[in-house]
Amino acid sequence: MKLALDRGPGRGCMPKRTLKDGSESTWVVLGASRGESGILGEGIRQALLRDPTYRPSLDCALTFLGDS
User: Fold this and answer.
1) What digits encode the pLDDT tens for the residues 32-42?
2) Are 34 and 12 in contact (CB under 8 A)?
3) ∠ CA 57-20-8 to the nearest 5 degrees?
4) 3-state secondary structure of 41
5) How many whole angstroms separate alpha carbon 23 and alpha carbon 17?
6) Helices marked H in the chain
7) Disulfide: which of 25, 26, 34, 48 matches 16 by Cβ 3.0-4.6 Å?
8) CA 47, CA 12: separation in Å to the nearest integer?
9) Considering only CA atoms, which of 47, 42, 46, 48 is closest in space to residue 61?
10) Interatomic CA distance for residues 55 and 36, integer angstroms
11) How confident is residue 19, by pLDDT bands cut at 50, 70 and 90?
């Protein structure tokens, strides 16, 4: 599966999903901000920071990569 996020004029965030068989679906995320650049990534980062499994998962990944 492939997921793309696009923004159209006056339409907010428009995700597009493409499956392995080539079928596609698109939809509009109501209330998605279009102002500040990087707002989606920041929202995801903030959501992950509040997830109690984020820090242990990050520590495990860093150990795996030898960066701890």
Assistant:
1) 655 556 777 77
2) yes
3) 80
4) helix
5) 8
6) 39-50, 54-65
7) 26
8) 20
9) 48
10) 27
11) very high
